[in-house]
Amino acid sequence: MIYSGVSEKGPVRERNEDSYAVSVINGCLCMIVADGLGGEVSGEIASKLAVDTVMNLFEQDQDALKDQEHLQEFLSSVFNKANKAILRYGNDHPESRGMCTTLTVAVLNGLKLYISHIGDTRAYLCHKREIQKLTNDHNKAAELVRNGQISEAEAKIHPGRHVLVKVLGENVYLKPDFFSYNVSYGDIVLLCSDGLYSFIGKEDFIAALNNRKDLKIVCGHLVDTALKGGSSDNLTVIAGLVRPDGNI
Length: 248
Hints:
This protein is α+β, with helices and mostly antiparallel strands. The protein has a single domain (about 5-240), classed as PPM-type phosphatase domain (Phosphatase 2c, domain 1).
């Protein structure tokens, strides 16, 4: 199995405001996770709109996924179209006005990994028994860390970790983060929401990778570990394997 995903409501929330999609399109492995803002109106609608819009645009313009020279521009336009879809829905449905979501998108093309990102959902790269965080969180606590005002350890308990500074659904124009990485065969790309990564550590990721030949088991292991660790949020994780056969 070259990819898998799991999304759980969790033990406390009444509904699951996370959405995800993963598919192979034109030889590229496309992975998407969005987390509708907890406590905000229609967060689950915002996250689903974002994911569905991105995946539909990928299907409609498959050649753009292979155009590495212009991929950043393409992904930026995709994010902005998803953002406009959310804003438009809010205008048409006053009860949902103000809904927002995070969005993290990964495109794996051979041995090149491209990521666009807004919010605090995360992307990780698992290489052998090492794990690397590939995205920057867009919240108040992370800003304080980047400014040298608090430590990474302090950020894990800082109240600002729940205050997002960049999301889809607030502004008319977005400028998502963009990253490109070289990867190796056998690497695993993980995308997950904060309901998962906030309740597991590096050692838990590594333990899950003991079953790396079956990504369904990897994802299930991570969700179970986060729940045992006390997660009270929605939890979502998707995993994709870098393979030498074009990911098909």
